[in-house]
DNA sequence: TATGAATGAGGGTTCATTCAT
DNA sequence: AATGAATGAACCCTCATTCAT
């Protein structure tokens, strides 16, 4: 992909993220994205097959980035404890820096349209898998105590997700940064980290 | 409200729950709800102001029920520990018995349209408040240890929510009943319940 | 089909015939048909699947009528000579009374879109078949001399078609009625009718 | 017009003939013609004013050729009989060798858009005129008997046109060459050629 | 001259809502 | 109260045409 093409592609995704965050996928017209991206309506369709493809691309592109960042953040960690804390911090940091993406994630993660769901579920499942890997390794190394890895992941992810849900829906949210420690403290107790 | 009127009102809400669960709010046409409810399209508008009103009513009616059931389930409980377990069990039981409602909750809880969000948030906030009350009381009675009640509630609700999210999106889910103990065990650790 | 439904169906087909005749299938907007029929745009779609379906229905309905009329006109004829003359007269008469249909036939008979062609070709083929039947019978009864029935039909139909083509494209056409005898005289010579 | 310019002009017309034949004027996108001609979309507009101009040019250029060829083929003919046979043979031969042009002629000859019709009708009218000249001369020289020259032309042209219509729409057509004699035999009878 | 990315007007179709019966 | 045919506003997408390079 050539430089200017890639730039415009990203510009449209950026615009879509903002627009979807503000209006939601269905309520948001393609023309709104175009205007926000500073291109003509038709230009959108030079880069994306249709409206749905914008959403799907948005997820695979942005969530892909997110997961990669999470992954990078834990390579240097020595212990499960560190890894879990790293994920919490990176997750919060990323979402805090990408508020619109956070909103879109919150809103559209649970689309009903089966086609969209399927397309979207990929990156999310990858994230779930990553968390479960960390937990499994922790159990094996006896760094944490956990009867069921899947339920453990549900708690871990569910907690972060609920925190972000509160954060995006609040007009004056306290910074997510401020609750990293609190969240981690709960996880420490739940996973019986020494 | 007269008897037959109430009956048809509920029939439409039932139909809407099914239809929204299957197609999602936006993708689902009002005519589909009407057909499912066994009434004419126009009849819908004798009971609801518009499509949005169906969704909002669905939430306040069904979520209202849900919260009432939760409330009833914990009145007999003596300890915070018992209360938390009761909520988990009742939450899971209710959703398991009302799969479509569970799906709608998952899908539409996070609507983007501000009007819808606002309308929906009422019952949910009530539930959040209930959980926080239980946690606050637990802290006061020193039955649990918790640095921040809001974060505690985020973890508690987020975990249940994530579990149900997995459950509704799985073709062959293990029964929620089966993970009550697992979830509670994690909560016990997190809240340092003796 | 109930009475008013049938009436509106025909009204839309009438409007479509006028509109297609004036603007051509592609250039004519559905909204133009709707306005001409005195209905809302959306109403069209209660009676027809889509724009293409209007054209196809127009042909099967109107051409069906036409062929039926041709068929009826020749039942009383005794000889091939009479039958051929009857077809000429009825063909001209029908088209003269349904100028817009004549135009549409001229214009759209030869659509390129394969789907449309196929749908349209049915009634036309039926007409061709009818003509060929008459010619075949004539040959068998030795009322006409004709080396190849298909070519005979091509001449017969082609002549009528070209005459109508001139007629519809002329601002001040001489009535088709006036050339019945002339056309028949040519056919008589071509088919060596005694 | 310079040499390479003329070449590209013809290449575009060739491509347009193919493309219009396959998809029809309206269904065929300009970009398809460009791709087929091996030029960029924008290049088309260096040679033609717009899409319509391509069609019009196609007709005046190709039909001009056609008529010229017809004209040349009859100069050496001595009798009306020979001339008519020559036209039939040349007409069929030309169309057989230019199948796409034959299709376009069939399809687009009867465009509805008045502007297009007008532009197209020129070459066609010229052909009609040529045929009528031959017929008129034949009548004057008493080589044929014909009450109305215009109707005679309608029959003559209509027959050829219908034959070609069958030929282009048939998957496995018998060669037009094979029906020259058959068609001429019918004309001979119609025109009472001795 | 040639390119092809960008434009944006336009139209077919859907569907929430109304209203005559 | 109930119906469901009719409405028409709204929107996604296409594609002829332009223009900066």
From TrEMBL, chains A, B, C, D:
Gene Ontology molecular function, alphabetical: DNA binding
Organism: Desulfosporosinus lacus DSM 15449
Gene3D superfamilies cross-referenced by the UniProt entry: Homeodomain-like, Tetracycline Repressor, domain 2
Keyword DNA-binding: yes
Record-given protein name: Transcriptional regulator, TetR family
PROSITE patterns, per database record: HTH_TETR_2
Keywords noted in UniProt: DNA-binding
Cited InterPro entries: Homeodomain-like_sf, HTH-type_Tx_Regulator, HTH_TetR, Tet_transcr_reg_TetR-rel_C_sf, Tscrpt_reg_YsiA_C
Transmembrane residue ranges: none
Residue ranges annotated for the HTH tetR-type domain, each copy included: 6-66
Keyword set includes DNA-binding: yes
SUPFAM superfamilies xref list: Homeodomain-like (SSF46689), Tetracyclin repressor-like, C-terminal domain (SSF48498)
DNA-binding residues (ranges): 29-48
Signal peptide start and end residues: none
Entries under Pfam families matching the protein: TetR_C_4, TetR_N
